[in-house]
Amino acid sequence: MKAREICKGVQWMGCVDWNRRLFDALIPLPDGTSYNAYLVRGSEKTVLFDAVDPAVSHVLLAQLADVPRLDYLVAHHVEQDHSGAIPAVLAKYPEAIVLCTPKAKPLLTDHLAIAPERIRTVEDNETLPLGGKTLRFIHTPWVHWPETMCTYLPEDRILFSCDFFGSHLATSALCSGTDPYVCEAAKRYYAEIMMPFRSMIRNNMKKVRELDVGLIAPSHGPLHDHPEIMLSAYEDWSSDRVANQVVIPYMSMHGSTEMMVDHLVAALTARGVGVQPFELSTTDTGKLAMSLVDAATLVVGTPTVHVGPHPHVFAAVHLANALRPKVKYAAIIGSYGWGTKAVEQVSALIPNLKVEMLGTLMCKGLPQADTFAALDALAENIRAKHEAL
Ligand code: FEO
Q1: Which of 125, 167, 251, 360 has a beta carbon 3.0–4.6 Å from 310's, enabling a disulfide?
Q2: pLDDT-derived band of residue 294, with 50, 70 and 90 as boundaries?
Q3: Atom 3 of ligand 1 has which residue's CA nearest to it?
Q4: Does residue 163's CB lie within 6 angstroms of at least one atom of ligand 1?
């Protein structure tokens, strides 16, 4: 794809990666992704914002073919999907200086072997005139690493936000408009990348709200030309508000745990509580992560494998703990053949979740009337807790 004009003196560059299906060797990408870079030309200075994944350096270099001089390269974030092509860009432009936060400078030398003399750090709120355009650097740590920052271009009311407000979405559309699927993709991205840093996101949102933003230009997915949609969505996702929803990641080996999950789903539904069960052998972990953005309660369902939880459950619960969702309540249900330590082992996996345990229920063999009655009681307990939210 060729460079595309956003407004006078500002161009989108980068690569739409239609076929990538896995990120960080972990995150499913059902819709591909993009690595967005941006070129801003003032009357005196020319700046490139970020680069692209090293696998597609050639795409960015082709777009830069008719750019004779580059004064600065702003590195908002050191993760390689944005910084990987920086060495190739610096090789093409020996005069260019990298601008980044003080925390980013050693990371750029560690990860990309960029010579320290080619890097200049910028302070929070520092400005840089380009001639008719001004850059204002906004330190926004933990969106997604500790070194991250954004840049605001007041003359055009553009916020270059890198991972912040991004979405893994390959599209030919330059801007999102009001497409609700972009908001869903951004929520998936928030869940996978940003959710562990919720309190820092809130602090950064206050900084963004002080700016007059007409366009958000992230480094993944389309630009947000209706920025209020994304800003208010982020404020909601990162708030303390939880929804009347229960998320149930589970596995079942011989059907007992599944019978329990099915009964609980029906009991919760009958009480007006929303439920999202995820059978983990077929679950898209991004969908599971998304469901945890808002849910008030997590119920883990597991059979017993060699005394402990099923390995798929182990992985899902470990992920939930790492993502630090704002769930308030939890429960563990499941089954076993002759003995089990699954409850103890699952409980030990979630130290980051500040939850009230509403109960545990492990059934020996086939669930029968007493188990179903206990599941009804659990559903009633959850309903009452949710009603009091
Ligand atoms: Fe898109 Fe944290 O890199």
Answers
A1: 251
A2: very high
A3: 79
A4: yes
Query: Does one domain contain both 190 and 309?
Result: no
- 3-state secondary structure labels for all residues of the chain: CCCEEEECCEEEEEEEECCCCEECCCEECCCCEEEEEEEEECCCCEEEECCCCHHHHHHHHHHCCCCCCCCEEECCCCCHHHHCCHHHHHHHCCCCEEEECCCHHHHHHHHHCCCHHHEEECCCCCEEECCCCEEEEEECCCCCCCCCEEEEECCCCEEEEECCCCCCCCCCCCECCCCHHHHHHHHHHHHHHHHHHHHHHHHHHHHHHCCCCCEEEECCCCEECCHHHHHHHHHHHCCCCCEEEEEEEECCCCCHHHHHHHHHHHHHHHCCCEEEEEECCCCCHHHHHHHCCCEEEEEEEECEECCEECHHHHHHHHHHHHHCCCCCEEEEEEEECCCCCHHHHHHHCCCCCCCEEEEEEEEECCCCHHHHHHHHHHHHHHHHHHHCC
In a domain, 389, yes or no: no
* pLDDT tens track for 317-375: 999 999 999 999 999 999 999 999 999 999 999 999 999 999 999 999 999 999 999 99
82 lines ligand 1 (CB under 6 A): yes
Q: How far is the CA of 134 from the centre of ligand 1 (A)?
A: 25
Q: Is the CB–ligand 1 distance for residue 168 below 6 Å? A: no
CATH no. for residue 188? Answer: 3.60.15.10
Last residue of a domain, one of 218, 237, 256: 237
For ligand 1, say whether the CB of 144 is within 6 Å of any of its atoms.
Answer: yes
Ligand 1 contacts CB of residue 139 (under 6 A): no
| Domain-terminating residue out of 186, 215, 237 | 237
